[in-house]
Every structure is written in structure tokens, then in C-alpha cells.
Amino acid sequence: MNNKQINLLVDAVKLLLIMVITLAVIAAIIFSVSDDPLNALYNFFVGPFLSMRRIGNIVEGACPLTFTAMAVMLIFKAGQFSMISEGSFFIGTGVAMSISLAVPMPTGLHALVALLGAALAGAFIAFIPAILKKTWDVSEVVTSIMLNYVCEFFVIYLVTYHFKETSSSSLASWELAPTSLLPKIVPGTNIHLGVILALLLCVGCWVLTNRSRFGYQLRLTGSNPSFSHYAGIKETGVMVGAQVIAGTIAGMGGGVELLGMYNRFKWTTSPGFGWTGIVVALLAKDNPLLIPLSACFFSYINTGANIMAMNSDVSNDVAQIIQGVIMMLIVSGALLQRWRQKLVVRAAEKEQAEAAAVSASVEA
Amino acid sequence: MSTVLANIFSAEFVYMWIRVVTPILLASLGGCICNQAGVVNLGLEGIMLLSALAGVIGGAYGGGLLAGVACGLGVALLVSLIFAYFHLNMEADATLCGTAINTFAAGATVMALFTLTGEKGTSSSLLSFSFPTINIPLIDRIPILGSIVSGHNFVTYVAFLAVFLTWFLFYRTPLGLRIRSIGENPDAAASVGVNVRRTRYVAILLCGLLTGMGGMYMSMGYLSMFTRGMVAGRGFIALAAAAMGQSTPIGALLSSMLFAFFESISNTLQLLALPSQFIRMLPYVATILGLTIYSIQKKNKAYARAQAAVQEK
Question: What would the DSSP string read from start to end of A168-237?
Fold first, then answer.
């Protein structure tokens, strides 16, 4: 085995191990809180596949996660820890709502403008922690998290003071303009055009990170900023650029989610797709093309948890617990590391022995 | 506006200010200990949230305040131990490890609340035990000063005592010296025989104790029940305060007071006819501005030092 194969094997086994541990955690939680654990487990794991509508739920739920995870991946690739995709996403929903309700436009164009507005707003928000870090070295971790709260309050302010449906008892906006909504593409489900957009985006990001000059600079900067500095790359510019692109993507994701899935703005708090995006990106292992799969996996967990909550006595918050556990396990660099090293050493020894045998036979 | 000003220059405002600073100060001192040991503990937020709920549940089911405290601190220590194990033994990045704990905490608290009470919002149906308020004899008779200093929650006095204790730990004990030395340079510390990993474990656990107290104050002092997401970023603000205070106890106290000022001012500003969302943004905006101003000053100082060094040559 060469090193690439070894890494693939160890990564696969690590993934399997993480899944087994996660399943054990899920089972342990459900058995300890539920009066009818088998029914709950059945609903959780099998429930999401029982109807076309539920399978649709998995795909729809994966869509916002794909956007935020893509944003997180770009930020992490630049070696930054900005948590801004949460804020960018939510500000995106707010701006898309405002454009949908306040600016009448013809069908098609309306959605396009709303999404562009959402993307711009997301980019602007992501720019703030990035530029603070670049100019004055302010920790982007804390400023981005604080900014998430600011975005949340700002969007709730927009809904409450400008677009609130007064006849509704709970917080909701007026009905969104039909001209701005994204069309559904699969009958019997809510799967909308945004899903296609998300997939195209993944391909685009793959090209950007793997086949473009910027992507090369990004990878170099993320892995070794001082080296790339000496190699003549403006590393701080690349970092800011990556975060702004990330904000654009997350903001657009917010617009897509609102215009694709809802006919009114109904969130009362930020829905947390940005935070879930982190674990989705980590599971996808730095590969944009794997993000949709990883997003589907976490969306499956969310869908399963919702179905379980409807049909049993276990609450759907189990999904968030699982996200935490999986995240903790994925980032454990030392998990199976010794085994990986052992395999690498053994392969090297074997290679050496073969080389020695060859040179011995040549001498003879 | 004048009513707002009159409110700020009143003894009640200062009293409220001290009340609001308590959880931030405790967590921030914990953050200082971790920072000094070279570990950025982003899990403060989650640890606070979990111990806030554990304190209420422990009290309700254990039948008393002490049971609640034991449960709250126990959970804080357990979660800190998990953080420490994954960060130190499994080589998980501290930021992501902390984020994992925060995610877990957000889900686990609501799930536990729902399982025990059938509600997802608050623990109001559980019998809550709160820390007592303490009137300091004699001082409480002094006008103005008495109404500011006396009559606070027990945990508030613990928090201010903890400033001194943390100072004592850092600068007067061998453990404190070891903690500071590995934060300064782990390899150098290891070369003179300091067990880096074990010292970091101790630092993370001490941080857990302080943060756990801060979390319990939220549900057993500040309010007398647990509400979903009640920590609301205070753990992150505490981390910012620790960084801004350069991880010294006095620095953490001052910057916590600064951030808490904006939180209590936002309570007062609700008298004005501004949209409440803008007022509630204030502590978070203040944290961003505070960190930025601090970083600008730090950068200028470093620049001035470099200039001076060049001129000496």
C-alpha cells in the first residue's frame, strides 16, 4: 500500500468508527429517555424513507446546509476560524425578505435581485471580522460570534418594525411576493430550484479551490501563511477574499432558503444553519464535491429527529446533540493516528526491504 | 434622555451593574486560567449553559441548594474533563472542540428539560433553589454605599473573591507559576520538568469550576429558573474580556465590568422609545468595539517598541 491508500483506508475506518460511536450515543439517549425506545428508533432511522415527501424533506433540508458548509469550508481553508456563516445566512434571509416585500418586480428578475441582495449583505457582514483581523489583528472567532447576535437582532427588527403581519399572533412577515419565490422542481415535494443552485455552487467551489490561481494561493495561505508570504502571495488579501466569498455564499443560501421554502418570514431566532454548516464541512473533509452528501447525512438526522418527535416522546433536540458528538470525534486528530503511523512505517520498511533485495540481486 | 442619565448615576444602576457582571466575571476568570496555560477555551458558553440547567435539576431532585451546587459543579467539571481529554489527548483543535461542546450543550439542555418537564422553554415547573442574598452587617446601614455593596447574591461575592484567588493562584503559588510558564513557552516549561499536559488538565478543570459557578448564577441567582439559551453569548463575551484583560485577573475584572456596563445600560435604555432589538445588540457591539480598540492599541504599542529598538541600534 502506498501512503495515499493508507490514508484512504484509515479515513474510511475512522468514519466507520465515528458512525458506530454516534449510533451508540443515539441508542443510549433514546433508551434512557423514551418509554417506547424501539418505536422511537424506528421512526428516527427508517421514518425519513417512508414517503416521497419525507425523502424530499432530506433534500430540502440539505440545501441550506450545503450553502453554509461551503462558506465554512472556504473560511477554514484560509486558516481562519470566523463563525460568520450563521450571521451571513440570517442577514441574507432578512434582505431577501425586504426585497421581496418592498420592491415589486417581474417574475424571475425579482428572485434574482433578491438573491443578489442577500449575497451582497452576507458578503458585507463576513467582511467585517475579516478586515478587523487583517488590519488590527482582532480575533475573528469572537467578533464573528458577536456579529451573529447583532445580525439576528437586526433581522428580527426588520420583520417586527417594517414587515410584520399584524393579524398574526406569532411573529411573521406579510406574504412574500409570488414573483420572488423559487419554483418547485419535483412534484410531491418542496424541492426547489435552490437545490440545483447549491449543486452548481459546489462544482464552482471545487473549480475555485482546486483549479484556479486563487485556490492555489488559498491552500498555500491556509497551510502556511508565512511561507506563502515569502512566496510573494498577499496572504492577508487572500484570507479576506476567502471570507468575503464565503459570506456571499452563506448570504445567498439564506435568500434561497427563504424564497424556496417559505411564503412568509417566520423565524424568531437565527435557525443555526451556520453552526451546523461547520460539522457538515468537517465531515466533507475539505472537498466541496462531498459537501452535498455530508449535508444530506445531517439533514437525514434532522428529518429523522423531527419525525421521531412527532411520533414518540423523544424531542428532536437529539439532532443537535449528535452534531456535537460527531464534530468532537471528527476533529480528534489523534483518533486512529497510531494505527495510521504503524501502516505507513510498515509500508516504508517493506519498500526498503524490496529495494535492498533488488540492489542485492543487481550486485550478484 | 435625562431620565436615562439620572438612572445611570444612581445607586440602583451600580447595584445592577454588579449583578450583571457576576457571570461574565466568573467565566472570564476561568478563561484567564485557560489562556495563561495556552488553551483557548471556546466551550465556556456551553459549560455555563449545562451547569445552569444541572444546578436547577440537581436542586429540584436532590431537594436542596447544596445538591444543586454539587450537580452544577459536577457537570461543569465533567464537561471540562471531556474538553480537556479531546483537546489534550486526542489533539482536537480547541476552537472546534469548544464549538462541539457548545452545540452539544444547546441540544442537551433543551432535551433534558423536555424529558423532565415536558416543556422546552423554561424550568418554571421545577422547584428551584437559589443562592441566598447576603446583607453585610453594618455596611448595609451606610447610605448609598450600603445599597451598592450589600444585599447581593452569594455568588456575586464569590466572583469578586475569585478575582483575588485567581491572582493569588497565578502569582503566589507554584501551580500558578507552572500554568503561566507553559502559556509563555510550553517547550521551555517541559524542558525544566513541568508536565505540560497535566498542568493544562488542572487549568481546564479550574476554569470549569469558575465557569460552572457563573452558569449556576444565571439560573439560581440572576433568575430563579432555567430558560432555553439563557447564557446568550455571555461565555463568548467572557472570553473576549479575558483576552482584553491580557488574561490577568484585574484585567479580566476591568474588561468584564466594561462589557457588563453596556449590558446594564441596555436594561436602562429600555425606557427610551428605541426598538428593543437595537438596545439588545448593545453588549455585543460593545464587545466588538472593545476588542478592536484593544487590538489597535496593542498593535501601536508593538510598533512603537519596534521603532524604539531600531533607533537604539
Answer: -SS--BSPPPGGGSPPB-STTS--BHHHHHHHHHHHHHHHHHHHSHHHHHHHHHHH-HHHHHHTT--HHH
Q: Are the C-beta atoms of A281 and A72 separated by less than 8 Å?
A: yes
- Inter-chain residue contact B291 with A143, CB threshold 8 Å: yes
| Interface probe, candidates A21, A131, A159, A327, chain B, greatest B C-beta count within 10 A | A327
Cα-Cα-Cα-Cα torsion B169, B102, A75, B24, nearest 10 degrees, comes to -50
Measured between its terminal Cα atoms, the distance across chain A in Å is 28
Q: Is B273 on the interface with A (CB under 8 A)?
A: no
CA distance A193 to chain B (A): 30
Give the residue from A73, A22, A109, A116 showing the smallest Cα distance to A279: A73
Is there a contact between A83 and B115 if contact means CB atoms under 8 Å apart? no
Q: DSSP readout, A283-316?
A: HTTT-GGGHHHHHHHHHHHHHHHHHHHHHSSS-T
Is A323 part of the contact surface with chain B (CB cutoff 8 Å)? yes
pLDDT given at position A220: 83
Place of cell 451508540: A24
Residue-wise pLDDT tens digits, B41-72: 999 999 999 999 999 999 999 888 999 999 99
Q: Pick the closest to residue A152 from B31, B229, B226, B291 (CA basis).
A: B229
Q: Output the pLDDT for position A11.
A: 87
Q: How many residues does chain A have?
A: 364
End-to-end alpha carbon distance in chain B: 56
* Interface membership of A344 toward B (CB under 8 Å): no
Cell of B158: 464569590
Query: Which pTM was predicted?
Result: 0.92
Cα A339–Cα B78–Cα A142 angle in degrees, nearest 5? 85
Nearest chain B Cα to A132, which residue? B292
Q: Does A328 touch chain B (CB under 8 A)?
A: yes
- The rounded distance, in Å, linking the Cα atoms of B120 and A269 is 15
Which stretches of chain A score pLDDT less than 50? Answer: none
Q: What is the ipTM of this complex?
A: 0.91
Domains and CATH numbers, chain B: 2-312 (1.10.3470)
Give contacts of B110 with chain A, Cβ < 8 Å. 315, 317, 320
Give the DSSP letter of residue B140.
G
Quote the CA–CA distance of B281 and A177 in Å, as a whole number: 30
CA nearest to A30, candidates A347, A243, A266, A305: A305
Asked if B151 contacts B134 with a C-beta cutoff of 8 angstroms, the reply is: yes
Which residues on chain A are in Cβ contact (under 8 Å) with B96?
278, 282, 327, 331
Nearest-10 Cα torsion for B85, B88, B93, B98:
40
Using CA atoms, how far apart are residues B103 and A145, in angstroms rounded to an integer?
14
Facing B89 at nearest CB: one of A161, A317, A334: A334
